[in-house]
TrEMBL record:
<dbReference type="InterPro" id="IPR002744">
    <property type="entry name" value="MIP18-like"/>
</dbReference>
<dbReference type="InterPro" id="IPR034904">
    <property type="entry name" value="FSCA_dom_sf"/>
</dbReference>
<dbReference type="InterPro" id="IPR052339">
    <property type="entry name" value="Fe-S_Maturation_MIP18"/>
</dbReference>
<protein>
    <submittedName>
        <fullName>Putative 1,2-phenylacetyl-CoA epoxidase, subunit D</fullName>
    </submittedName>
</protein>
<dbReference type="InterPro" id="IPR011883">
    <property type="entry name" value="PaaD-like"/>
</dbReference>
<dbReference type="InterPro" id="IPR056572">
    <property type="entry name" value="Zn_ribbon_PaaD"/>
</dbReference>
<dbReference type="Pfam" id="PF01883">
    <property type="entry name" value="FeS_assembly_P"/>
</dbReference>
<feature type="domain" description="MIP18 family-like">
    <location>
        <begin position="14"/>
        <end position="80"/>
    </location>
</feature>
<dbReference type="Pfam" id="PF23451">
    <property type="entry name" value="Zn_ribbon_PaaD"/>
</dbReference>
<feature type="domain" description="PaaD zinc beta ribbon">
    <location>
        <begin position="136"/>
        <end position="179"/>
    </location>
</feature>
């Protein structure tokens, strides 16, 4: 006779969340999945009280890092000996507004210009989405090296699809800018 698995409790969820909050983004190792808002939830599975469910959301639907992120989450859960499943949730879509202030500071220190906020104050439960780039001059992108806003976009595509390549016109250095969306 096998013993029944214990029911997931708050202490176990806290232990799992703490372990997962230390996982870094495979493309930008200075930020964690939690900092980026990719780690959405750690909860007891609704259909199995002995199973932990971890919810992740990609920064965009074609993000090539998601397979590695899911592998890293699974490996952490296995090390903890926690029966779990990983759920990739696409809706609501990830937004740069989910990034923590710590993530923005870490990106800047790493040499990547962080995005500004996309959504301003709106009625409860509503969020404004932009499907076109902002007009030139709408948002000054500060150089993460010297802080100058005398910058220009060189290419809409940077080192990864979620970043654009910019250049500072004062210090002349190129840098990635995390696209706001």
């Amino acid at each position: 006779m096998t013993a029944a698995l214990p029911t997931v409790d708050e202490a176990l969820l806290a232990r799992v969340r703490a372990a997962l909050e230390a996982l870094t983004d495979p493309e930008i190792p200075v930020v964690t999945l939690a900092d980026m808002g990719i780690l959405r939830d750690v909860r007891a599975a609704a259909d199995d009280p002995a199973l932990v469910e971890v919810v992740i959301t990609p920064t965009y639907s074609g993000c090539p890092a998601m397979a590695q992120i899911e592998d890293d989450v699974r490996a952490t859960l296995e090390r903890l000996g926690v029966p779990a499943r990983v759920v990739t949730q696409l809706a609501p879509a990830w937004t740069t507004d989910w990034m923590s202030e710590a993530a923005r500071a870490k990106l800047r220190a790493y040499g990547i210009a962080p995005p500004g906020r996309c959504a301003g104050p709106t009625p409860a439960g509503e969020r404004v989405l932009r499907f076109v780039p902002r007009a030139a001059g709408d948002e000054a992108v500060a150089c993460p090296r010297c802080g100058s806003t005398h910058t220009r976009e060189v290419s809409r595509f940077g080192s990864t699809a979620c970043k654009a390549l910019w250049q500072c016109l004062d210090c002349r250095e190129p840098f990635d800018h995390f696209k706001p969306h």
